[in-house]
C-alpha cells in the first residue's frame, strides 16, 4: 500500500506552481516533510536552479495535539504522535537519488525563529502540517520571508477530515489582503501580490 501523503496528481500541481516562481529570488521551504517523498520531487525540480536551496521542517515526532479547530467526524486517525518519521530517512532518500542535501530542521514549527531558522528570502513554500496551529504558524513564518510574486501552497484545504488548514488559510487571507487565493484539488495556492 502506498504511504504517499500527497497524491501524484497533487504533486504535479505543486511542481507546476514551483516552476512559476523559478525566476524569483529566494529559497524553497516545506513545513511538514515527513519521510521526504514530496521533498525529493521538489529537490529534483530545483536541480535546474542550483542557486535555490531546499529547507525542510518537521518535528519528526509526528503530529502535535489537535486543537478545537481540528475536530471532525472522520478525522479520528489523525492523532498526536502519528506520522512519526526520522530525519535520517529523509537524508538517505536524498543520497539514494543523488540530490543535493537539503537543510533539515527538526523542531516544532512554533519554536522556529524566522531569522535563525528560515532562509532570508522564500519564493515557494509547501505547507503540509495537517492541523490548524501548524498551518497558521507555518503561514506566518513563510509570509515573513516570501518575496513579492512568491507562492505558498497549503495541502488539505478541502479535506473534510482535516478542517484546520482551511480555517488557518481563511483567517490568514482575511488579515492579509495583499495575497490572492486560488484553489486546485485540495490545494490552496496563495500568491503574494507583486508590490504596486
Ligand atoms: C502529512 S505529513 C507531511 C507529508 C509530506 N509533506 C509528504 O508529502 O510526504 C505532516 C507532517 O507534519 C509534521 N507536523 C505537523 N505539525 C507540526 C508542527 N507543529 N511542528 C512540526 N512538525 C509538524 C508531522 O510530524 C508530519 O511529519
Describe the protein in words.
It is a single chain. By secondary structure, the protein is an alpha/beta fold. The protein has one domain (8-192): 3-Layer(aba) Sandwich (Rossmann fold). It has six helices and seven strands, in the order αβαβαβαβαβαββ. It has helices at residues 8-20, 37-46, 87-96, 114-117, 132-145, 164-175, and strands at 27-31, 54-58, 103-106, 122-127, 146-154, 179-184, 187-192. Strands 3-2-1-4-5-7-6 form a seven-stranded mixed β-sheet, with helices on both faces. Helix 1 runs parallel beside helix 2 (37-46) and helix 5 runs parallel beside helix 6. The radius of gyration is 15 Å and the shape is globular. The relative contact order is 0.19. S-adenosylmethionine binds next to helix 2. The site of S-adenosylmethionine has 21 residues, from helix 2.
Give the CATH H-level superfamily.
Answer: Vaccinia Virus protein VP39
Ligands present: S-adenosylmethionine
The number of helical elements comes to: 6
The gyration radius over C-alpha positions equals 15 Å
- Number of structural domains: 1
How does the helix and strand content classify structurally?
alpha/beta
Low-confidence stretches: none
The CATH topology:
Rossmann fold
> Helical percent range?
25-40%
User: Widest sheet: strand order?
Assistant: 3-2-1-4-5-7-6
Shape: globular
What distinguishing features does this structure have?
single chain, 196 residues, 7 strands, binds S-adenosylmethionine, Rossmann fold, alpha/beta
Condensed summary:
With 196 residues, the protein is an alpha/beta fold. The protein has helices at 8-20, 37-46, 87-96, 114-117, 132-145, 164-175; strands at residues 27-31, 54-58, 103-106, 122-127, 146-154, 179-184, 187-192.
Amino acid at each position: 500500500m502506498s504511504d504517499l501523503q500527497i497524491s501524484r496528481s497533487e504533486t504535479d500541481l505543486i511542481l507546476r506552481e514551483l516552476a512559476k516562481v523559478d525566476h524569483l529570488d529566494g529559497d524553497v521551504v516545506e513545513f511538514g516533510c515527513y519521510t521526504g517523498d514530496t521533498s525529493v520531487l521538489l529537490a529534483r525540480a530545483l536541480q535546474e536552479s542550483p542557486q535555490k536551496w531546499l529547507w525542510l521542517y518537521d518535528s519528526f515526532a509526528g503530529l502535535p495535539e489537535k486543537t478545537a479547530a481540528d475536530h471532525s467526524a472522520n478525522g479520528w486517525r489523525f492523532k498526536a504522535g502519528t506520522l512519526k518519521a526520522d530525519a535520517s530517512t529523509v537524508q538517505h532518500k536524498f543520497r539514494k537519488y543523488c540530490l543535493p542535501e537539503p537543510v533539515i530542521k527538526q523542531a516544532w514549527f512554533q519554536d522556529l525563529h524566522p531569522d535563525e531558522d528560515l532562509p532570508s528570502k522564500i519564493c515557494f513554500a509547501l505547507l503540509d502540517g495537517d492541523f490548524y496551529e501548524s498551518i497558521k504558524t507555518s503561514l506566518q513564518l513563510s509570509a515573513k520571508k516570501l518575496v513579492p510574486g512568491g507562492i505558498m501552497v497549503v495541502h488539505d484545504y478541502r479535506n473534510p477530515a482535516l478542517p484546520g488548514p482551511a480555517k488557518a488559510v481563511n483567517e490568514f487571507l482575511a488579515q492579509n489582503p495583499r495575497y490572492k487565493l486560488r484553489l486546485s484539488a485540495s490545494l490552496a495556492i496563495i500568491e503574494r501580490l507583486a508590490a504596486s
